[in-house]
Amino acid sequence: MARQRGTTDRRQFIKSSAAAGAGFWVAGRLHAQESDSPNERIRFASIGVEGKGSSDSADAASNGDMVAICDVDEVKLGSAARKYPNAKRYTDFRKMLEEMGDQIDAVTVSTPDHTHAPAAVMAMNLGMHCFCQKPLTHSIWEARQMAKVAKEKNVATQMGNQGTAGPGLRQAAATIRKGTLGTVSEVHVWTNRPIWPQGGEQPEPKDIPGNLDWDLWLGPAKVRAYADGYHPFAWRGFWDFGTGALGDMACHTANMAFAALDLRNPVSVQAETDGHNGYSYPKWSIITFEFAANDWRPGLKMVWYDGGKRPDRELLDGRNATGSGSIVIGDKGKLYSPDDYGERYQLLGDIEQPEVEFERAPRGRSAHFAEWVRAIKGGKPAMSNFPDYSGALTETVLLGNLAVWATGDSGESDKIEWDAENLKAKNMPELDAIIRPEYREGYSLEA
């Protein structure tokens, strides 16, 4: 779409990544150029306005002007329109971005997982800054593309794993990176998810509700009949739409360990499950990731548990692993977090909390969103930006689901040898279609 010169000039002052600077826990990308007009109001559009989209759109509206809203459910769209009466209403994000591309500075994407990448990449290709809910994408290849496009377009980005902005998580990560635990060999992470049905058969077709545009809800996924359990919540448990318990929560619960230990580009992954039918995720899974040594730490493993599975009490020094949490195990001590977000933690063993330095997020409500707004206005990139952080975190998380898929109905599979650079399962080429699924006509990640 052709863009007016005035729009390009207007965005220039809020365009991120124009001057070099350091990142948070890993090598950082380019920092943002300071704005010539710091009081200029950001023009936001929100794709998905109920559920998590309700709070994301509220955060946007509190930081600028809501100029457009989009949802495939007319009831939910109408509810949002009462909150944002000056925003134009759409049910198709493609039409919204095409028609209003020169009137939107930044978008929030809070849709089911399978629509994240098509919506976010289209927006970024039009030069819009992007906030996208976790997990960043539905497939591993999409996560790589999201990071690539964000870097190429120099837009400010942030994934909605809000715990990343918490001082507790940042302090815990800095504590581990300082060597407090000694040499770390294992990480164990568990969750109380799923809290939606998983492991069942395909639901019976039903009439499409009059308020729902089912074809737009399906987006890039293959066509199928509407049924109860897809909209508005339980889609998380279906392969074609969600990413299961792992995708829903690992970008939160494994986030502290990722920040602390740079858990990107695993070299192998293997899963054990109760089996699945290729339609719904299994009821439970245990997934083991292996990471090679990098230039500052040795190799280690991470084990993920969901569906009621938990690590042995001995690993937690006799504690029961209830709810959700994580533990990082070193040869000098352990760091235990009984928390979804890594915000609360305690040190186990004969070690004490050292003095550590870490950068704090902006104060006030929704610090993670405020970090993104700061980046849009010319400040530092948000910690969980796509190119440096959340793209790689999402790749690691979704590799676990690749291993879950490989277990099939037996619940067992060989270890997947992973080529992270080329996004290939070296010993299982048949998994290519899961790594990069095909979109149906009308949806693409191309510019």
Give an overview in words:
The protein has 447 residues and is an alpha/beta fold. It is 29% helix and 16% strand. It contains 13 helices and 15 strands. The strands form two sheets. A nine-stranded mixed sheet has the order 13-12-11-7-10-9-8-14-15. α6 links the parallel β5 and β6 (157-159). α6 (140-153) packs antiparallel against α12 and α9 packs antiparallel against α12 (386-407). The longest helix has 22 residues, at 386-407. The protein is globular and about 60 Å long. The termini are close together. Mean pLDDT is 92; it is low at 1-8 and 15-38.
- The low-confidence runs, each spanning 5 or more residues with pLDDT under 50, are 1-8, 15-38
The biggest beta sheet, please?
9 strands, mixed
Helix segment tally: 13
Radius of gyration: 21 Å
Oligomeric description of these chains: single chain
User: Strand order within the widest sheet?
Assistant: 13-12-11-7-10-9-8-14-15
In short:
With 447 residues, the protein is an alpha/beta fold. The chain has helices at 5-12, 52-61, 74-83, 93-100, 116-125, 140-153, 167-177, 214-218, 244-253, 255-261, 367-376, 386-407, 432-435, and strands at 42-47, 64-70, 88-90, 106-109, 129-132, 157-159, 184-190, 268-273, 285-291, 300-306, 325-330, 334-337, 346-348, 416-419, 424-425. Strands 13-12-11-7-10-9-8-14-15 form a nine-stranded mixed β-sheet. Strands 3-2-1-4-5-6 form a six-stranded parallel β-sheet, sandwiched between helices.
